[in-house]
Design goal:
Elements (H helix, E strand, L loop, with lengths): L4 E2 H8 L3 H9 L7 E2 L5 E3 L1 H13 L6 H12 L8 H40 L2
Antiparallel strand pairs: 1-3, 2-3
Amino acid sequence: MDGHMQIGEVAERTGLSLRTIRYYEEVGLVVPSTRSQGGFRLYSEPDIRRLEMIKRMKPLSFHLDEMRELLGILDSLQDAEFGDTQQHRLHEFREKAEQRCRDLRAQLHVAEDFAATLREHLAEQ
């Protein structure tokens, strides 16, 4: 299949479900590079990298519209028309991602404290 993978292989490789991959296609976040003669979706390495990028955005609470915009900006990085507006938006997205990472670290700290408290209670039994 000349370097292309079917959706099942992509799901296994990315850890995303078939349903999720189809949903991302339905909402326009990723489009399979081609289809087989039998109509099966075929994905290329760039398609898989795009799915991996989407997968990394999800825990950072990016909404579909934000994902779509950010992917468009990343797609246009090499374009001659890449301008100040896209650069500014890319910085905003980076700041949002970094803030969300800080928020997640704080949540993890609270969860770890709670787990430690439960361990202490169990040790006292």
